[in-house]
Design goal:
single chain, mainly alpha, about 65% helix, about 0% strand
Length: about 200
């Protein structure tokens, strides 16, 4: 049984903002994001028979959005416009942790230093750090941390094993933390080590 036009439109409108947010982070610019969302919605409508149940709509359309993005990237690669997608680039042995930097063993904390630190960073800084990640890491962070998709949903969407999702997510989060820490240090942002009286 196919999804009706009315149900499809209702589902799309309910998730349109999230789709555009993901597309913007994938493409790194608003114009391309709008094109990607429009293309993904058109493909979803043509493929509506493949939707198993209306409740599966969000994961289903995010998969179509991601597949559309990957297809577009592959075409661009053939034209030689972008770099190849690879799994390398981030080293597990050098994983960075803001938590470890902020929680030095000789310090006694009375507040939440991570929250204090992150509150001082601008949203644009986070977006820039995210945009600087290699594509295959950026995608899993967007899906897991911004769209709250489960590992199994991400694995299904990207057609990769759950272990690979976990590995990429860990590496991506460590790289993001390191980039944000460096940015904060460059700007002279200090994190207090004791409560203010």
């Amino acid at each position: 049984m196919s999804i009706t036009k009315e149900v499809f439109e209702t589902q799309v409108l309910a998730i349109l903002g999230r789709l555009h947010g993901v597309a913007t982070r994938l493409t790194r610019n608003d114009a391309d994001a709008e094109d990607l969302v429009a293309d993904a919605i058109a493909r979803a409508w043509r493929a509506r028979e493949s939707l198993s149940a209306p409740s599966a709509f969000p994961a289903w359309i995010f998969r179509i959005l991601n597949n559309t993005f990957i297809s577009d990237r592959r075409r661009a690669l053939v034209r030689g416009q972008t770099e190849a997608i690879e799994d390398g680039g981030l080293d597990d042995s050098q994983a960075f942790s803001i938590f470890e930097r902020l929680h030095q063993p000789f310090l006694l904390w009375f507040a939440n230093p991570e929250q204090e630190f992150l509150n001082k960073l601008l949203k644009d800084d986070v977006d820039r750090a995210l945009a600087a990640l290699p594509e295959h890491y950026r995608v899993v962070v967007i899906m897991a941390d911004m769209e709250d998709l489960k590992y199994a949903e991400i694995a299904e969407t990207l057609k990769i094993p759950i272990g690979t999702v976990r590995s990429r997510l860990a590496r991506a989060r460590a790289a993001l933390q390191e980039a944000l820490w460096s940015l904060a240090q460059e700007r002279g942002i200090e994190v207090s080590h004791a409560p203010k009286h």
